[in-house]
Design a protein that fits this description.
237 residues; mainly alpha; single chain
Length: 237
Amino acid sequence: MPTSMPGPTSMPGPTSMPGPASYPRSPIGLGRAAVASLGLVIAVDLFAGYAGLALYDVTGDLMDGATGSGILRRADAAESLNSLAGKVQSGSMLVCVIVYLSWFVLVRGNAGVFDPAEQSMKPWWAVVGWFVPLLNFWYPRRITLEIWDASSPVGARRSHLLVNIWWTLWILSLLADRVSYLEYGDAADDIHAAVGQTLIHEAIHIAAAALAVLVVLRLTRMQHEKALARAGVPVEA
């Protein structure tokens, strides 16, 4: 028997084949979709703010003693506009949650390819962490920072300032949302105060969504550039 014939032990096994997890997936498509969904939320929040201002104005007039059919028609119109704004907001938020989490899961998966040791939490926390009470106040930020560090250039760490400002605004938005839904009576002054709180919440929510857009854009670009660098493609600084 020829000694040059390779034996069974010299055959490459399945473990030598790179699996799908060895390669990052492009975050560009979902990144653009996430930015678009966040932009939709901002636009709807602006509409809700306009509706809120209309209601705030008419309840202020009622508090000042304004009467008549004209003021009542304005109040009914403002109420209807606010009801419509609330429904549109719910729809836009649902779309944004689905698209944003799809992007977030993808970049978390890429981070596990770039630097598995940097990821201290299981991949499923990228979704579950947003919905578990109390844990959702810091788990998503922690996961985002770990993705951020794993997506940074090798040997470098980019500042966490953008993520920290965004997360602070997001937490403030959650707290303001709870305050704006406190129970109030039917009196004009109660409604006026509640609408004022809601307007503050809308402003914070818009700011948080705008910062989220910047986070998505920056992180998507970081992962795209790192993927190109891993493939040996020159990347401009």
